[in-house]
Amino acid sequence: MAHSAAAVDLQTALLRLRRSGALPVAFGGLFTGARQFHISALSGTTSRSLHGLAISAGNGLGGKAASTSRPMSVADYRASRAISHEYDAAVEAEGLRSVLAVPVVVRRRVRGVLYGALREPLALGDRPLAAAVEAARELEQSLAVHDEAQRLLSVAQQPTEADPALWEEVREAHVDLRALAGRVTDPLLREEILAACRRLARASSSPRHPGRPPERCPVELSPREVDVLACVALGATNAVAAERLGLRPETVKSYLRSSMRKLGAHTRLQAVVEARRAGLLP
């Protein structure tokens, strides 16, 4: 995933955490290597003492949360005996006392840590922890979506001699990604996912027809019409497509009929063929 996209997702998570009202200070970072991450985003801080701080797995509160893959908190950072104190100077320069750290875990791998903090030595209860965990989970979803989009695009750029089974994997993942887009509430993230799907459809059609650009469809299909056709392309029945997309079978049938009419197709198979020719499906 591009570093700029990761930075935006991280900053958004910190703002969401602060807006919960439970923690006035939030900061965090994502791993750039196997054993270390840097504090790269701040929200609600009054200094730059924490920015750029390199956190090693196992060290300090965040490093310990990362190594154990579970949230941790301390009521008084500088007095705590549960953590090591390599980063006390930076924490004290910002005036932080109560601090919690929540690991960001994507597919069982810790990708970073979100912190929330108070300037008073108070025990952090369930409300701050719940807010931090929720922010971390939403960040995890964003990272997972970007990872999958990048994986799909890299697969689509395989040589023209790619194993046909690999294309089936691409098509399967393409459907999953489009289904995920329908459940994402952030409109910018949703459009980013759909844009990646469109790039995937175009990229995957080119290797099979060298030197010839994909044909342009004279009509546009709605996102849901493309979703349904993507499922049909995998051999799904209306009922299976409905379950996968979270729709009713009657709704799927309606979308399918509409897309067939727009594509000038008389059968499900013909609709899939025409959609692929138009660069709408991989």
Describe this structure in words.
The chain is an alpha+beta fold. Helix content is about 50%, strand content about 15%. The strands form 2 sheets. The protein has a 5-stranded antiparallel β-sheet, sandwiched between helices. A two-stranded antiparallel sheet has the order 2-4. Strand 6 (about 100-105) and strand 7 (about 110-120) form a beta hairpin. Helix 7 (about 225-235) packs across helix 8 (about 240-245) and helix 7 (about 225-235) packs across helix 9. The longest helix has about 30 residues, at about 125-155. It is elongated. The model is unreliable at about 205-210 (pLDDT under 50). It holds the Pfam family GerE.
Summarize the structure.
This protein has helices at residues 3-19, 60-68, 88-94, 126-156, 164-181, 187-205, 223-233, 238-245, 249-263, 268-277; strands spanning 25-30, 36-38, 41-43, 54-56, 72-74, 98-106, 109-118. The chain is of the alpha+beta class and 282 residues long. Residues 214-279 form the HTH luxR-type domain.
Number of strands: 7
Strand order, sheet with most strands = 3-1-7-6-5
Radius of gyration: 23 Å
User: What name does CATH use for the topology of the largest domain?
Assistant: Beta-Lactamase
Domain HTH luxR-type: 214-279
InterPro entries: GAF, GAF-like_dom_sf, Sig_transdc_resp-reg_C-effctor, Tscrpt_reg_LuxR_C, WH-like_DNA-bd_sf
GO molecular function, one term: DNA binding
Organism: Streptomyces palmae
Give the SSE layout.
Elements: H1 3-19, E1 25-30, E2 36-38, E3 41-43, E4 54-56, H2 60-68, E5 72-74, H3 88-94, E6 98-106, E7 109-118, H4 126-156, H5 164-181, H6 187-205, H7 223-233, H8 238-245, H9 249-263, H10 268-277
Antiparallel strand pairs: 1-3, 1-7, 2-4, 5-6, 6-7
Keywords: DNA-binding, Transcription, Transcription regulation
Protein name: LuxR family transcriptional regulator
InterPro entries: GAF, GAF-like_dom_sf, Sig_transdc_resp-reg_C-effctor, Tscrpt_reg_LuxR_C, WH-like_DNA-bd_sf
